[in-house]
Amino acid sequence: MKRILHILSTNTLSGAENVAADICMMFRDEYEMAYCSLDGPIKDSLCDRGVNFIPLKKLNVLGLRECLKTFKPDIIHAHDIRASVYASFISFNIPVISHLHGNQKAMRKISIKSILYLISTFKVKTIIAVSDSCINDFVFKRIIKRKAVVIKNVIHLKRLEILMDKDEENYNFDFVFLGRLSYPKDPKRVALVASNVLKKCSFAKFGVIGDGELQKEMINVFEEQNVIDRVVFTGKLPYPYKALKSAKCLLMCSIYEGLPIAALEAMALGVPVVSTPVDGIKDLIINNQTGYLSNDNIELENHIIDLITNELLYKKVRRNIYGKIKLINNESYFKMKLNEFYVKY
User: Fold this and answer.
1) Running DSSP on this structure, what letter comes out for residue 181?
2) Is 203 part of any domain?
3) Neighbours of 28 (CB within 10 A)
4) Same domain, residue pair 174 and 312
5) CATH number at residue 26
6) Do 293 and 193 fall within a single domain?
7) Does 244 reside within a domain?
8) Model pLDDT for residues 5-32, shown as the tens digit of each residue
């Protein structure tokens, strides 16, 4: 059985990490797969998924070479820029697949990060991107285009079923944010939009699912707007699905995205998404049918208010989502496209 090693640079669970873990679950009966990253909270999440985890004390050349000696992979599948660069250094003759999960700002200009990634691509066999913009906005796109392919992310629906019941808490949110509280997600804008909804809907409660360096900035906004008493910061939940499903709406104000796993998870649970129209999210949502897209804060607020106050509208959008989710989240196609590369190399 062919061995495939997934390498990531982080030790917590987020979008790219969920995709890599889902791939391990999807191909469980076809390949021997392992997930390698820094040791940390990710360990328990992978254990619950039944994914083989190889922890590293440090993500460096020495640690990864030891991992190669232990696991002896036939293919390395690297899921972020840093992991791709390291994989190219230590792979020797092992084929490397580089997976770009986001359209990062540093990759759109000449920078140390973009140059190092460009150098790494000379060893990489295939570059998988989750959206066209990941490739088209890359400053060195002309050099890498010949080996790049777009495969949109999906989520492994069985994972939601397996993990949903592991959260024993009860939630009662009208709308939520789910993600890391960091620059790409624009948490301050999320807080401003949510605050105006809360001021107009005195009954509403907002849940912030996640943590990050900009949490204090969000808290300041809610305090200034005098709505902090109706905002709940859950912190990072290992299994956010029950909290997400309790809401009638997921609010996103991202500056850039790849193809957001949080939005896919929301739609799989029948939760409408109200978002800024960026990158891969424009491919997920049919505006005014399965969710709402706008760059205007007032429009975002109004869409949220409509969803949490108009039960008929909410049920209509929810029906539309369930009608489209199998087309949007086509696991069979995703597996087929990945398998083409796994078989090839």
Assistant:
1) -
2) yes
3) 14
4) yes
5) 3.40.50.2000
6) yes
7) yes
8) 999 999 988 888 999 999 999 999 999 9
Question: Quick check: is 75 in a domain?
Answer: yes
- Structure letter (DSSP) for residue 229: G
Rounded alpha-carbon distances, angstroms, from residue 197 to 24, 147, 232, 263: 40, 45, 15, 20
Characterize 324-334 residue by residue with b for buried, 16 or more Cβ atoms within 10 angstroms of its Cβ, and e for exposed: bbeebbeeeeb
- pLDDT confidence of residue 133: 87
Find residue 341's DSSP bridge partners: none
**Same domain, yes or no: 270 and 170:** yes
Count the residues in the chain. 345
Q: What is residue 328's predicted lDDT score, i.e. its pLDDT?
A: 85
Q: What pLDDT score was predicted for residue 131?
A: 86
3-state secondary structure of 292: strand
The whole-number pLDDT of residue 141 equals: 94
Where the chain has pLDDT below 70, the residues are none
Residue 116 sits in the same domain as residue 228: no
| pLDDT tens, residue by residue, 160-193 | 888 888 888 999 999 999 999 999 999 999 999 9
What sign for the dihedral angle of Cα 260, 268, 298, 206? negative
Residue type, 76: I
Burial of residue 35 (number of CB atoms within 10 Å: 0-12, 13-18, 19+): buried
The answer to whether residues 52 and 171 belong to one domain is: no
Query: Is 108 in the same domain as 178?
Result: no
Q: Is the distance from CB of 208 to CB of 185 less than 8 angstroms?
A: no
Confidence (pLDDT) at 158: 87
Residues in contact with 13: Cβ distance below 8 Å, sequence separation at least 6, in sequence order:
21, 41, 42, 45, 238
Number of structural domains the chain divides into: 2
User: Do both 188 and 313 map to the same domain?
Assistant: yes
Angle between helices 157-164 and 261-268 (to 10 degrees): 70
Q: Is residue 215 part of a domain?
A: yes
**In contact, 21 and 45? CB cutoff 8 Å:** yes
Do the beta carbons of residue 140 and residue 111 sit within 8 Å?
no
Helices 61-71, 81-90: inter-axial angle, 10-degree rounding: 70
Please, what's the b/e burial string for 229-247 (b: 16 or more CB within 10 A of its CB; e: otherwise)?
ebbbbbebbebbbbbbbbb
> Same domain, yes or no, for 307 and 336?
no
Please list the residues that pair with 55 across neighbouring strands. 37
At 144, the amino acid letter reads I
Q: Which domain holds residue 143?
A: 3-154+330-344
